[in-house]
Specification:
Layout: H1 11-20, E1 24-28, H2 33-49, H3 56-83, H4 90-106, H5 108-117, E2 122-129, E3 132-139, H6 145-158, H7 164-170, H8 179-191, E4 199-204, E5 207-215, H9 218-234, H10 243-253, H11 259-267, H12 270-280, H13 294-319, H14 328-351, H15 356-368, H16 371-377, H17 381-392, H18 398-406, H19 410-420, H20 425-433, H21 445-461, H22 472-477, H23 483-503
Antiparallel strand pairs: 1-2, 2-3, 3-5, 4-5
Helix pairs in contact: 1-2, 2-3, 3-4, 3-5, 3-8, 6-8, 9-17, 9-19, 12-13, 13-15, 14-15, 14-21, 14-23, 15-20, 15-21, 16-19, 19-20
């Protein structure tokens, strides 16, 4: 998230991030007071957008505590380095901490300048992940064993206190000053009905990560789930999946079926044959020789590949029926879908070539990942009015409905429709988890990560997000830890896609 000299909150960006599930990220090196206040204002706007304003005071304090500790940890790295001490060595650590506080306070500007020179950052990340809120503070200094022990000692001691007043009377710490603040933070979380388990601190890949994770709101989640399920039930005009494709898929599922029988069944449907050969021959799949028959297609892409292509073709026919007026919004969504499919297939082929099923499923999953959004955002206004009336009868006010409708879970809607159409589990899972790949079943995590990354690359290319706003855990899983690597991949796939467009495929 970019900032100006006056640190003005971009409320439209906060709203867009909440509705899309994209992270709000802010990175600083010196953390001046104005920046800390700005972080608090972003958090305030974020909590207001998710209707949890009552948490603002406590979470603002918690955020301030975490960013302050991250800044202190970075300062400690500069100080120890200048003193020739190793923060990971017990003797050096104890020696350095004797003078750290007084020495750095007396010359704090020097240490802040050095942090910037050495690119030691403090990064705040706010995000809705599935039905949970995630507040993270990261700094690029690995947590030492002694710091880790110290933090967990404070967490254990926090269990002894029933109030902030009691903690203030019994707990003082002159060596680092961070222990009391952490205990108070845990006590404040308890006041919000959150346990200490919602707070995590870990060190990985050269970063220390302090993370708060908690449900958005149990009742709110129920209402959003209700909207999703009732919306799917209301779409009476949503057709059943094409019977010819269902019949062919039954044949594909039959282990006794012969390849020749499958090819013949498809070939008997002239329109489907044309669509399938067009899909197989698309430049996205980079086939050296063009397929001229269904038999060739089956040999080239296999049973699983044919099945995925049939699901693609059937979905496109269902979601863009003959005579359908292609509104600007619907065209925009389908363009994004086709690009995501192309990007997903090429990323999977390059990064997961040893995971055959991931490669084979990547195109169809990329194409259909936003299926729920396509249906929901382009549905007839009468459907939304019916939904409002139905939910009003179940106790959801018009005001609450308007708030909820903006943040309704398109991924869940898409997954419910995919289940209704009896899609295979990989497609359903990626539709459901393409914003939260870490929540996907382990066997489908690579595939979900590929589609997530493809989606993010397109947002990045459109200038809607920065590299810092892409989930660093997914980037690490895909071995893209530096922006230069990410940009190289992004540029190469964009060039390949543009070449395909020029070729007229």
């Amino acid at each position: 998230m970019n900032t100006s000299a006056t640190y003005t909150v971009d409320y439209s960006k906060v709203q867009r991030a909440v509705q899309s599930g994209l992270p709000l990220t802010l990175t600083t090196y010196k953390l001046p007071h104005e920046m800390e206040m700005y972080m608090g204002e972003i958090l305030r706007a974020f909590l207001k957008e998710i209707h949890r304003e009552e948490m603002t005071e406590y979470l603002t304090y918690s955020l301030s505590e975490l960013v302050g500790n991250a800044k202190k940890a970075n300062t400690k790295r500069v100080y120890f380095k200048e003193k020739g001490l190793d923060v990971h060595n017990r003797r050096d650590y104890l020696e350095g901490m004797k003078t750290f506080k007084n020495d750095t306070l007396d010359n704090i500007q020097h240490y802040l300048d050095e942090q910037e020179k050495q690119e030691l950052y403090v990064r705040m990340i706010l995000q809705i992940r599935g039905n949970k809120v995630r507040i993270e503070v990261r700094n690029n200094a690995s947590l030492s064993y002694f710091e880790y022990v110290r933090i967990h000692d404070k967490l254990s001691r926090a269990q002894q206190y029933k109030s902030v007043d009691q903690a203030l009377k019994q707990l003082l710490d002159d060596s680092e000053g961070a222990g009391l603040g952490l205990v108070i933070m845990i006590l404040m979380l308890k006041k919000l009905g959150l346990s200490e388990e919602c707070y995590q601190v870990l060190s990985e890949r050269g970063e220390t990560i302090s993370r708060l994770v908690f449900p958005i709101d149990v009742e709110l989640n129920k209402s959003i789930s209700l909207i999703s399920s009732e919306f799917v039930n209301l779409i009476d005009e949503l057709p059943q999946f094409p019977e010819n494709i269902v019949a062919i898929n039954r044949l594909l599922d039959n282990p006794m079926a012969k390849m020749s029988d499958i090819a013949e069944k498809i070939s008997n449907d002239v329109s489907l044959t044309a669509d399938l050969l067009r899909t197989v021959n698309t430049a996205a799949f980079a086939r050296t020789n063009r397929c001229r028959s269904i038999g060739d297609a089956v040999k080239l892409v296999g049973i699983r590949g044919i099945k995925n292509m049939l699901f693609s073709i059937g979905s496109i026919k269902n979601l863009t029926p003959d005579g359908d007026k292609q509104t600007a919004r619907k065209k925009e969504l389908w363009t994004h879908a086709y690009k995501t499919a192309f990007y997903s297939y090429n990323i999977a082929r390059n990064l997961f070539s040893d995971e055959r099923e991931c490669v084979e499923d990547s195109y169809v999953c990329g194409l259909l990942h936003d299926m729920g959004k396509i249906i929901f955002e382009t549905s007839h206004p009468d459907v939304i009015e019916k939904l409002k009336t139905l939910l009003a009868g179940k106790g959801v006010s018009n005001e609450m409905f308007e708030k909820l409708i903006a943040g309704v879970d398109h991924s869940e809607i898409g997954a419910l429709i995919a289940e209704k159409w009896n899609f295979p589990e990989p497609i359903i899972a990626v539709i459901r988890y393409h914003h939260t790949p870490e929540e996907a079943p382990e066997a489908l995590r690579s595939l979900s990560s590929v589609v997530y990354l493809s989606d993010m690359i397109l947002h990045y290319q459109a200038g809607e997000i920065s590299f810092d706003e892409i989930d660093c855990d997914v980037l690490s899983r895909l071995r893209l830890t530096r922006e230069e690597q990410f940009k190289t991949l992004s540029d190469s796939i964009r060039v390949a896609f543009e070449a395909q467009e020029k070729s007229g495929q």
